[in-house]
Each structure stands twice: as C-alpha cells, then as structure tokens.
Amino acid sequence: MDIKTDYKYALEQSSIISITNANGIINYVNAKFCAISKYSAEDLIGQDHRIENSGYHSKFFFNELWTTITNGRIWKGDIKNKAKDGTYYWVDTTIVPLFDKYGKPYQYISIRSDITDRKKGEEELKRTLNEISSYKYALDESAIVAITDHRGIITHVNDNFCRISKYTTEELIGQDHKIVNSGFH
User: Fold this and answer.
1) Alpha carbon distances (Å) from 172 to 65, 78, 144, 154
2) CA separation for the pair 13, 2 (Å, rounded)
3) pLDDT(184) > 80
4) Any residues with CB less than 8 A from the CB of 14 and at least 6 apart, and which?
5) The Cα angle at residue 50 between residues 49 and 55, in degrees rounded to 5
C-alpha cells in the first residue's frame, strides 16, 4: 500500500487537474480535464490555458492570477472557460506553485471542480430577482400597497400608501389597518 499512489488516485478521480511549466505551457491533463473541456490530451499538451479562454474575464483578472502564482502564492477563484465545442463551463480553481531548489516556481498544478450548475443557478436567481424588482417598482409606482403579517399587522407600506393616508411609514408599521379606518364602513 503506497499512500502517495492512493492520494494521487483519489485526487485524479475527484478533481480536474492540469500541470503547466513556469511559462504556463500545459504538460499534463487528467481525464476529467479532457471530459469537461472536450479537448483531447494531445490537443492540450504544449498549449497554454488560453486555448479554453471564454473571453469572460478581463486581462486584469489574469494578470492578477499570474502575479499571484509567479510570486509563489496560491491562487483561488472561479474561472469561466470555453470547451472545444463552444460551450461554456465554470470551474472553482486552485493553482499551486511548486518550487525549484532556488525557491522559484518551476511548475503550477491547477486543481479544479466543476461549478457550472451552481453558476447557472446563481444567474437564474439574479434574473428572477431583477424581474421581481421590476414588478415591485411597477406596483409601487402604480398602486397603493400595504403588506401585513398573518395577524394583520402592517409590515410594509409603499410611498403611495403614505401619501394617500397622510401617515408616515414609521406611524403605519406595527399597526393594523384600523389606523386608516374612516369609520364609514
């Protein structure tokens, strides 16, 4: 039983791995990397990671990444990449510099996890929240709105409600609708 072999096997099975030289030229990719990028190992070996650049991130983003790792520090972040077939995928990435006997990085190991589904969910949530915000704005601009809890206590009023009732938000929150009852009904 060789713990290093077991450790490597477990890492290969669970993560998307690539290794580059100090100049960023890929010299190793695992099967998970090939599966997500849809490139073969032969397509990737000898290239740099620009082969999968989605155009999503700025030059500043990648300059910061390179500055971090060339200075011997570990870089962590999310990267949006483009597969060989043109589809996009997101990876949670950790890039670890490995040092030569002079303390200079001589290669970088990238360990990644696929987070595409999470990112799609976040984007859908953002779209939904923007849509709800637009509906709320339209409703607030065109109607008198009061929201109450299950006991009928006012928890929210819009500006139109305050303008018509002549009460401030502070005077209305925590009250029930009796505060605006004219006694007519």
Assistant:
1) 52, 45, 13, 7
2) 17
3) no
4) none
5) 130
Share of the chain above pLDDT 90, in %: 75
**Cα–Cα distance between 82 and 50 in angstroms, integer?**
10
Q: For residue 109, give Cα distances in angstroms to 1, 87, 92, 126.
A: 25, 24, 14, 33
Give the pairing of strands 146-148 and 154-157.
antiparallel
Joined tokens for residue 155: 């928890």
The pLDDT of residue 75 is above 90: yes
How much is the pTM? 0.75
Of the candidates 93, 66, 95, 61, the residue with the CA atom closest to the CA atom of residue 77: 93
Q: How far is CA 90 from the centre of its chain?
A: 8
Amino acid at 133: S
Per-residue model confidence (pLDDT) at position 183: 66
Token pair of 140 as six digits: 């607030």
Instruction: Give the residue among 97, 93, 53, 88 at the shortest CA–CA distance from 76.
Output: 93
Backbone phi, then psi, for 92, in 5-degree steps?
-80, 120
